[in-house]
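Chapter review. Work through the record for F-box/LRR-repeat protein 15-like leucin rich repeat domain-containing protein before attempting the end-of-chapter questions.
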Amino acid sequence: MRFLSVSDRKEAAVVCRSWYEASLDPILQRDIIIHFYATSSTGEAITGLSRRKMPHLVLHHFDTSIYSNSVIHKSCEYLTKNLLSLSLKGSNITESTFVELLSCCEMLVSLDLSCCDSLFMSGKLLEKNSEIQKLRHVLIKVKEINLSSIRFLSDATFNRIMTICENVEKLSLGSVQITFNSKAYYPMGETRCASGSVLTFDNILDFIKIQAPNLVSLNLSRTSMTSSHLKSIASIKDLKLRELVLVGCKDVENGGIVELCQYQKSLQALDLSGCVHLKDGALKMIASELHHLQILKLNKCRLITDGSVKQLSQLSQLQVLDLCECYHLSTNGLTLGLCNDRKLSACLTHLNLSGCANITDKFVVQLCQYAVSLVHLDLASCFLISDRSVHAISSYLKHLRFLRLAWCKEITDLGLLGLLMNDISTDSDHNHDNGICRCTRKYKSTEIFKKPTTDLDKDSTLTVRQIQNLMQSGHVVNKLSNISGLQYLDLSNCSKLTDLGLTQAIQFQELRVLQLEMVHGVTDEGMIMIAKNNPSLEELNLSHCVTLTDVALEVIVTKLPRLQNLNVFSCDKLTDKSIKLIQTYCKKLKHLDVSFCSNITYDAVEKFESASKSIQSVQKRMISGGL
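Structure tokens for F-box/LRR-repeat protein 15-like leucin rich repeat domain-containing protein:
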């Protein structure tokens, strides 16, 4: 079973008793995360799971209610013995319950307390020295702690948490309110003290200095960090970070990154997404100094240009690169940076170029020939790429698992089907000037205005017969279905796609997520074939596919038993019959969006919500009888 995905393992485990016993092998449980909610049935589920050695537990939005306390007590009794990671994200548990729960987690390695505002609001968490000493011995193995998005975190409570987790190696303080003018909060006459009301940068700096020999990962995203503060951290003696996350730190500029690269040359992962003031100098410094870098994210760093991107060829170990919404990048710079070094191309597995609207087929083709190890490729909103790029992706990227081509409006059925248009002329040249230069307007004759020709009235899309002729004539490269292991596919708003290409190309046994939002060319017949050919689908987005009716939805819900997320936003032809079909067949559905489906009634959706045991959220805006 170790070669199966989690979804496949869950299905196999219910086949027979022997397979169920096989699924309980501890080796197979390493990547299983159990999510619990404070409901009356959760306690029974915990008792039933006592035989499994579950390493990861998430308790969602628990509070001080009787049900919540019951679940937490049973978690302590049955699940904490082998627990490696625990998440209390957003839970409103009390200080005493927190201490009781953690005192049972002797094997704990990772602790997530993000968004636990109520736990820190009073400032009395771990106020008793006996509690600190008790947990200090229990949590000696904790290496990672997440304190992100806690509004009431102070120096005092931060220090207490760090005291009971004294061997921490990874610390996350993203979106925490850090006061960088620390002296303003010291009592009169004091030069340094731990504040009981605010979290100060000086206090964090003191902790980092103490923990420097062990600390390898730091997350200070969405704080008011500046270049000078970054320098203060980077220059700490004995600190050798392997990962630094500064997402949304808008005050960090080139100078800070230059200092960082000079002191922290061991960095393997660097996330500077949303650091909008970074320019070419920062990226050039990263490329020249951080030779061990494996992960680089520069999402929305819009001042970066081809001048620095071409230096990426120096990062020979780079595996993950995110340049989403870097609008100034073009084919030339990216080709020099990513397609000039075979060693770099061989390492690259994840690439996000979403929103880089200037890249063309020339770059994509060359990239696919070099970076054959890619498993994740995002080219959404790259408006200039066409069927030629899809042909290259289908031919060379056989290990691809994630492919996003949303809003690439030049992609047609021919791209999905791997067909070449050598022998058929169409109107795809986007001009009807018979070779006359449209830029200079230098005409061969004095005739300036011409009557529209009959060719302008013809649809530029090939007919079904023409495509069939192409397939029979052997002008075939590779269908998209050649990427047999694809698990995520996004073709949203690829307006030239129709049933012909979609049904022939979307045939994947392992596909879990399919996004077809605003693909108006898909009809009931096409959707029926897609549902039959992709049995592992768990998430399906058909928003604004206005031609779909109850006929298609009936096949979808019967042929896709693993469906967990269904979006049919603004599919006006669906009726209450679809809701009844979903209620009957979708036993695992968690999220449903039927907003703006004018023929679906509010009462039908309400009945479905009350009857379903698995549903977590339903979007139902502007449906019949609703608001």
